[in-house]
Design a protein that fits this description.
The structure holds three protein chains of three kinds.
Chain A lengths: L1 E6 L5 H26 L3 H10 L5 H26 L7 H18 L8 H27 L3 H21 L36 H16 L1 H11 L1 H7 L3 H24 L14 H11 L4 H24 L5 H22 E6 L12
Chain B lengths: L2 H4 L3 E9 L4 E10 L4 E5 L6 H9 L6 E6 L2 E3 L4 H7 L1 E4 L11 H6 L6 H15 L14 H13 L5 E5 L7 H16 L3 E6 L2 H7 L2 E6 L2 E6 L6 H9 L18 E10 L9 E9 L3 E5 L6 H9 L12 E3 L2 E2 L5 H6 L2 E4 L14 H9 L5 E2 L2 E2 L1 H14 L16 H13 L5 E5 L7 H16 L3 E5 L3 H7 L2 E6 L2 E2 L3 E2 L5 H9 L20
Chain C lengths: L2 H28 L7 H19 L2 H25 L4 H20 L24 H6 L3 H19 L1 H11 L1 H6 L4 H27 L11 H11 L4 H15 L1 H8 L5 H20 L2 H7 L15
Helix pairs in contact in C: 1-6, 1-9, 1-10, 1-11, 2-3, 2-4, 2-9, 2-10, 3-4, 3-9, 6-7, 10-11, 10-13, 12-13
The chains are: A mainly alpha, B alpha/beta, C mainly alpha.
Chain lengths: 363, 521, 308
């Protein structure tokens, strides 16, 4: 007797909806085991992760502060992943967006112009797109694998950031800390509520989500990208440009990641410093998958990951759980998601030669 | 009668194999006697290949029993099957292109390579299956690859040889030499299970025939005592539908497709280079390209369709409807009134997990399906329903996914989708590959009707019967070069075969690396 | 030691990390499995290997623990990508993320600690040759074992039946299965071998090359190892060469600093990444050639169903 996967004729919608629930359940189960091994209190940690973030208003605004960039980047990455363009360098594109946007307040320290913020938005988007364009160019012109290139570009972007912070852009009054000047208020988004860090930039991911949803569901352009991802030969047969898919996927991701980077330096951080990305570029990969690469699913996934990031901070203090536990949990989410997703397209079939089949032949 | 002749070599009892979409083999009973050439006859999709893979242990049966020389056996992997003395030659060969002949053989046959090479040569001589043991498989012709597979089986203690549609890849001349080799094997006591859908060759070669239809056995007969018509009735449950082929005159003075001096280097060292291809197709005629697979058909198809633009051909190398198109991509060529049905249905002609409606959008989006880049769902669904209706596509509706359809129905959908584009020039590659007879006949009839309406049609096919049935003119492709145009009515399949193996045509065009089966005579 | 001697000797040591990881990945890829989780496997093993060496004082135990850790992580990848048929790229990324998280967790109590470096072998006679002696013949035994293994792997892939089996499931899994090879079993084996070697690479990095543990110390070397397999066009000899080239490049920063060059250190730190991109672009330009050398079924799941 042995067990085998057998492809379903049509994918199962029921399983598709169950996948995130099972994924989260399994991830919680395995991390509970890990926590027990580490000698941490499981109930306390779970409480810190999933309940504590909602216990006060400030904490809830912090969830939304993290929700924004995760949503923004994940929506763009999902478009690329559906086209099988593997941009895993959103982190680098985010850094370059932040760097480009920061040029404005760094060089115009005295300015109080109302155009500061729009200029930063434009530069942020361009910075991210420019960085992504390198990968797109190398892929379409030299056939260089975009996974490796975007990843290497992230490491290089980080070095560029360090160079600027230790050199030309270092705040002269900053006690030699690797950081830029604090940006003037005109270069910052307005907080939504007094005393919180959540600001008007949250509108960007929301608008972007709507745009992506329309693009992928209603537009021919989205259809073309999807065909390219599902069946490259069919795309060539239809005459859809493979290079176009690479360019549009990467530029879209660069645009979104650049804006996310800009929103960080023009928002909660208010200056350019070493840790501007909080790993959003990597977490967004998990968000994109956990949301089944679908614009609506990604909204829930981004919110969920935002909660556990805040929860991780809480758990560090309340349950002495190291912050790396959050990364482990994120990794588990993706691993279990990929494993359970198989059941959307396959079902288990038990083989018992010589014995009448108990498994029914489904139609 | 002695005991040995009454106990079958191999018996199957109520063997069943189910897939989610269908029951591929439904309670099959089969007895193969020692020293017999036993045909398994059935049309595409009848379950022949599945049955053979069950016997060879490639896949596992859900139910049923196997007996080998009267003993119950469990055929759950190919190693068991080989140990019993079963060998199999696959329809799509199981050879590795990058390895040499002897390396391929050493994957299943123990022994050092020098000795194996020697035995390959010996067996080649005995059975007239000559092949160079040191040659790389990618340099071999299809016929030679088949010989390698047969020799690999002979190197084990062979009692039963399974051949899956062995002649579908061979020119007519080589078919006869293959039959000679098989008869020689039979005379040495090897039983042969011979899978085919070709009635005449079964009547010529086999002494027993088990007929499958829809996964069930519909008869076990002596094929020599039956007419082809009777066999056909057992095979498809009715008479083979005839198509109305009538001669037709060209409708245009100028060719609708003209290819002049097309040459293309293939960067893939295992691929074929095209040299000096000249071809024209006029309105109101069907032109066929015959040839053994792997002689440049795929390369030529991609260049004509506009999928492969990497060769930077001079623009007027290819002209469609009097426009030079060699630099235009597939979309631009389609806009001129060209449409194309590729040989691969899943993954090229259609996107497998997408709905039929979305698959309409793939090439028919210009037929009013878009409004400033927004998809008009109603239009897409209307087009799809019409295609399903007009071309008799059996499916659950416009929302069925492409991979839920049978091969024949998906092919009808793709052909229908392309014909509904109202092309002036249509190009089909292997239009009825793996398609059931009903669908194949329907597709051929559609093509003939279109021809009569004045459409120019180009067909690449490996099925000679099909080409003879529908084409007005024929070319043969061999080694990347095209034969002169031949009027179908003036040539025989054997003539085409001469071009396939390179013994016809220009004197300089001598056969390469192709020691002929025919040498045996 | 002169700077040049230091540089050349350092190259051999640095290259060993790349080579070990790349050899493991080579075997996995030859079987058709594109495992992008090398970075994660190396990180976990580097942490586990360091902790084991630190606690026991034995490098041998460190390597054993690291190899075991690499195998465990590779099994996660294998289960999801082979048994559960998930997309190999996504699974590799998932395992990479998981591995980086786990490594921080494992090494959190040993952050910034050091262990004694393992001793070097002195090959009699040869190590006394001026200049060449110390450069070539005074290294840790692992450096030589790695080179020997590389040669053995090259031979095995080319001339043995095991090598044929691995290559065949990477070229055409359907045909291999039809011939009686178990595609999943061989692929599991290849991936686990990759995990073992990524484990050794991690241990070498954290206990011999730079005998200390710091979170994030693998610093992209796993990814460069993946790139090396492409650079080497899946051929052992070229992968050895590539590993030594990158060993050299990765020392650029140290050398420039010791020479007091007036180049921003960030530029030098970026050098391995820049070189990776440039070489990748050069190698990949000839798409047809790359495709020819790459295992034909690389990255494709095999669900045992009929091919069409």
């Amino acid at each position: 007797m042995h067990i085998k996967f057998e492809r379903r004729i049509e994918y199962s919608k029921k399983v598709l909806l169950a996948v995130p629930v099972i994924t989260i359940g399994l991830s919680i189960l395995v991390s509970s085991i890990l926590l027990t091994i580490l000698g941490k209190s499981v109930p306390l940690t779970m409480y810190s992760f999933f309940i504590a973030p909602f216990e006060n208003f400030y904490s809830i605004t912090e969830i939304f502060l993290k929700f924004g960039p995760l949503l923004l980047i994940a929506q763009a990455l999902a478009v690329g992943f559906r086209a099988k363009v593997w941009n895993i360098g959103a982190e680098g594109q985010m850094i370059m967006g932040a760097v480009a946007a920061s040029a404005v307040p760094v060089y115009l320290v005295e300015s109080t112009s109302i155009f500061l913020l729009p200029a930063m938005l434009a530069l942020g988007a361009l910075g991210g797109m420019g960085w992504a364009a390198i990968a797109a160019f190398l892929r379409t012109r030299f056939n260089a694998n975009e996974i490796l290139v975007t990843l290497m570009l992230t490491s290089i972007a980080l070095q560029i950031l360090y160079y600027l912070l230790l050199g030309p852009w270092k705040d002269p009054m900053g006690f030699n800390f690797p950081q830029s000047v604090m940006f003037q208020d005109e270069a910052l988004f307005t907080p939504l509520f007094q005393g919180t860090r959540l600001n008007t930039s949250i509108i960007i991911p929301i608008l972007f989500t709507i745009a992506v949803w329309i693009f992928m569901e209603k537009r021919f352009g989205g259809f073309k990208l999807e065909v390219g991802g599902l069946a490259p030969n069919a795309a060539t047969y239809a005459g859809f440009s493979a290079k176009g898919a690479v360019w549009s996927s990467l530029l879209l991701a660069g645009f979104a990641a650049g804006l996310a980077g800009m929103s960080e330096v023009a928002g909660p951080i208010a200056q350019l410093q070493r840790s501007i990305t909080s790993g959003y570029g990597y977490s967004a990969i998990i968000v994109a998958y956990l949301g089944a690469l679908h614009p609506l699913g990604i909204i829930f996934a981004a919110f969920f990951l935002a909660v556990i990031q805040i929860g991780g901070d809480v758990a560090l203090v309340s349950a002495d759980v190291p912050i790396s536990a959050v990364h482990v949990f994120q990794g588990l989410l993706l691993v279990f998601y990929l494993a359970t997703y198989t059941f959307v397209n396959y079902r288990l079939r038990i083989h018992r030669p010589g014995v009448l089949q108990s498994a029914k032949v489904s139609s | 009668m002695s005991e040995a002749t009454t106990t079958p070599l191999l018996s199957l009892r109520k063997v069943t194999k189910r897939y989610p979409a269908l029951i591929a083999n439904d309670q099959i009973d089969l007895d193969v006697m020692s020293g017999s050439i036993h045909a398994v006859l059935g049309e595409n999709g009848a379950g022949k290949s599945t049955l053979m893979k069950l016997i060879y242990g490639v896949i596992e049966a859900d139910d049923g029993e196997f007996y080998w020389e009267g003993e119950r056996v469990d055929l759950r992997n190919t190693a068991t099957a080989r140990r019993l003395g079963i060998g199999m030659v696959f329809q799509h060969f199981s050879l590795f292109e990058t390895l040499s002949v002897v390396e391929n053989i050493s994957m299943t046959i123990p022994g050092n390579r020098k000795e194996l090479a020697k035995r390959v040569l010996e067996l080649g001589e005995t059975f007239h299956l000559e092949v160079d043991p040191q040659a790389s498989v990618h340099s071999l012709s299809v016929g030679e690859r088949q010989r390698v597979e047969i020799i690999r089986c002979l190197l084990q203690d062979l009692k039963l040889l399974i051949l899956d549609e062995p002649t579908s890849v061979l020119p007519p001349q080589h078919v006869r030499s293959l039959f000679d080799a098989l008869r020689k094997l039979q005379s040495k006591g090897v039983s042969i299970l011979y899978i085919s859908h070709k009635l005449e060759e079964i009547r010529e070669l086999c002494d027993t025939a088990t007929i499958l239809r829809g996964g069930k056995v519909t008869g076990a007969v002596n094929p020599n005592e039956k007419t082809a018509r009777e066999l056909a009735t057992l095979m498809i449950g009715r008479n083979i539908p005839q198509i109305e082929a009538r001669p037709h005159q060209r409708d245009t003075d100028e060719p609708v497709l003209r290819i002049t001096k097309l040459s293309a280097q293939n960067p893939d060292p295992f691929g074929t280079h095209l040299t000096d291809i000249d071809l024209s197709v006029f309105g109101g005629e069907i032109v066929g390209i015959a040839g053994v697979s792997g002689n440049g058909q795929q390369e030529l198809a991609r260049i004509i369709s506009g999928e492969d633009l990497s060769h930077n051909l001079p623009v007027s190398t290819i002209e469609m409807l009097n426009e030079p198109v060699a630099s235009l991509n597939a979309t631009e060529r389609r806009k001129l009134g060209f449409s194309f049905v590729p040989e691969e249905r899943l993954g090229r002609g259609a996107v497998p997990p997408m709905k039929l409606a979305q698959n309409s959008l793939l090439t028919a989006y210009d037929k009013g399906m878009l409004n400033r880049g927004f998809i008009r769902k109603d239009q897409v669904n209307d087009y799809t329903s019409k295609c399903i209706e007009d071309f008799d596509v059996r499916c659950s509706g416009t929302q069925a996914s492409a991979n839920s359809l049978s091969g024949g129905n998906l092919q009808k959908f793709i052909v229908g989708r392309e014909l509904m584009l109202k092309p002036k020039l249509i190009f089909l590659s292997q239009p009825t590959w793996g398609v059931d007879i009903g669908a194949a006949v329907a597709i051929r009839q559609h093509l003939l009707n279109l021809r009569d309406e004045g459409i120019a049609i180009l067909v690449i096919s490996e099925e000679l019967e099909e080409l003879f049935e529908i084409c007005d003119r024929l070319h043969v492709i061999r080694n990347g070069t095209l034969s002169p145009s031949l009027i179908t009515a003036d040539v025989t399949p054997d003539d085409i075969g001469e071009y396939m193996i390179g013994t016809a045509g220009a004197p300089g065009d001598a056969p390469q690396n192709e020691p002929e089966f025919a040498n045996a005579h | 030691m002169t700077t040049i001697e230091f540089f050349l000797a350092g190259t051999m040591s640095a290259a060993t990390v790349f080579l070990l990881a790349a050899l493991g990945e080579l075997i996995a890829e030859k079987s058709g499995m594109l495992n992008l989780g090398v970075e994660g496997m190396m990180a976990v093993s580097a942490a586990a290997g360091f902790v084991a060496t630190y606690e026991t004082g034995s490098h041998l135990i460190g390597f054993a623990v690291a190899g075991f850790a690499g195998i465990i992580v590779s099994l996660v990848y294998a289960t999801v990508a082979i048994t559960f048929l998930a997309n190999q790229v996504a699974t590799g990324l998932a395992v990479g993320i998981l591995g980086l998280g786990l490594s921080a967790l494992i090494g959190r109590k040993h952050e910034s600690l050091t262990v004694a470096s393992a001793g070097n072998v002195h090959i009699p006679m040869l190590s006394d040759i001026p200049l060449l002696g110390p450069v070539l013949f005074q290294h840790n035994i692992v450096v030589y074992l790695t080179l020997a293994t590389a040669v053995a792997i090259g031979y095995c892939l080319k001339y043995t039946r095991l090598g044929l089996a691995i290559r065949s499931v990477g070229e055409n899994p359907h045909a291999a299965q039809a011939l009686g090879y178990s595609v999943p079993l061989i692929r599991y084996g290849a991936v686990v071998f990759g995990g073992l070697f990524a484990g050794f690479a991690g241990a070498y990095a954290s206990t011999i090359y730079t005998p200390l543990w710091a979170d994030g110390m693998i610093a992209g070397r796993g990814w460069i190892a993946v790139a090396l397999v492409v650079f080497g066009t899946w051929k052992t000899g070229r992968i050895i060469l590539g590993a030594y080239l990158f060993g050299m490049v990765s020392l650029g920063e140290l050398i420039a600093q010791s020479l007091g060059a007036a180049v921003p250190s960030q530029l030098l730190s970026s050098l391995p990444y820049i070189v990776t991109i440039v070489v990748l672009a050069i190698i990949s330009t000839n798409a047809a050639r790359l495709k020819l050398h790459a295992p034909f079924a690389l990255g494709e799941s095999y669900d045992g169903s009929e091919s069409r």
